[in-house]
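Ticket #485: bound-state structure for nicotinamide-adenine-dinucleotide.
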Amino acid sequence: MMEEVLVLNNFIAGTMLPCKRLLDSYDPSTGQVWAKVPDSGQLEVEAAVAAAKRAFPKWSSLSAQERANYLLKVADLLESRLEEFAVAESQDQGKPVWLAKNMDIPRAVLNLKHFAHTIPHQLNKSNVQPEAGVVNYTLREPMGVAGLISPWNLPLYLLTFKLAPALMCGNTVVAKPSEMTSVTAYMFCKILQEVDFPAGVVNMVFGLGPTAGEALVTHPDVPLISFTGSTVTGRHIAQVAAPMFKKLSLEMGGKNAAVVFSDCDLQRCIDVLKRGSFINQGEVCLCTSRIFVQRPIYEEFLEKFVEVAKDLRVGNPSDETVFLGALISKSHLEKVRTYINYAVEDGGTVVCGEGVDICILPEENKNGYFMRPTIITGLDDNSRCMQEEIFGPVTCITPFETEEEVINRANNTTYGLCASVWTSNLGVAHSIAHKLKVGTVWTNCWLVRSIDMPFGGVKSSGMGREGTEDSLEFYTESKTICTKF
Ligand code: NAD
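RESOLUTION: The complex was predicted; output attached.
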């Protein structure tokens, strides 16, 4: 039986507004259209920005604690609907339901609670500097209407990581989630209505990047853009926004390395890198896609890692025993498969996964966008699979001999998001961590994320940092007041 297709509305000035033009949104696990998403353009963005602008004076004049109370109500309601949101996130994105239940939705709740609890304290910190005859102090003021643009891999998780600090700092918001994963953002708007969130403070405009996204980025009344997505789009946004002097935070792609030394705890390293390479179908910007293994343990590492990768189940996202669900779209699956062809053309060996092992799927998932975890060896560091972001369940493994060699090789990419280092020698761990050109280094762990720590990338992976203090800095402008006495 065909499920009823969900039709989404834009959320502007506290009201659900239908859009005449609609886009198809697919359930990646079946290949069927399951939602229709507004194909918004200039007019809808204009209306949303105008609503956010009208709501700004009142929202920004509330105390931080009053704003926090609103966010905490939203967080509580979201938490009480964890199951419903997790199922929707899975159906929209393709990830296993258990992952959405344990990671995406709890983290969205935490984002709201964390910034609701920390920003009032930070905003109220006094910063007074007396000098001879004068007293200086600074204010942190909201910027106005914040434009938030988010990707499809961690939809509600990344949206709320922007939304919560932007609102807590006193800004109003126009958000544009990915056209491929808009459903949980829409459900979130319904929660805002239920808790009587002040109208116009949060506006959600759904649609494509080059139309709805571009209209938001170029809008003169939006002084700040927080973007997470690909490096290609980030570069374009930077080019468009720079002449308008907009404040920008760009969180972009990665080509993240793991450096595995002979003296590491091999079992633990393999367990974590299995997640690090294949969780969320490898569709996490922080996923590991190049593993450098020190020569003496290379063969042993490869054999064990291939064994665990082959054991990972791929299939229906609602099956609790499945580790990988479906990739986001047909075209993305095709793109990832193209990289496997490149690997073969470039002289690599596909040890397991795509093209080697068969993906056995239930009947209802036969048209879904599934792929087995894939491991490639024998590639040159400058080959396409070692240089370009694939953003799927694909990782390349290569041996190395010395510390100095591996630092140069790990840094040999235009990206610089994160890396992990595996060794029992703490001195080596720190020394390597200092030399890797990335925003975050994990030693003997991966994806242990504290919201307090600055998050972001270097080189083509990003510009700016977000996290407790960094978000406060980004979503406010500081003003100095000097009084003579
Ligand atoms: P994308 O760049 O295609 O799209 C991201 C968002 O930007 C979407 O909402 C899209 O509609 C919008 N967009 C596209 N063109 C636009 C334009 N011209 N103007 C304004 N908005 C526009 O990225 P994606 O495919 O959705 O996401 C995958 C990418 O995101 C990967 O490269 C991944 O590494 C990256 N990512 C980075 C982080 C991080 O924190 N660094 C986190 C998650 C994902």
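RESOLUTION NOTES: The radius of gyration is 23 Å.
TICKET STATUS: resolved
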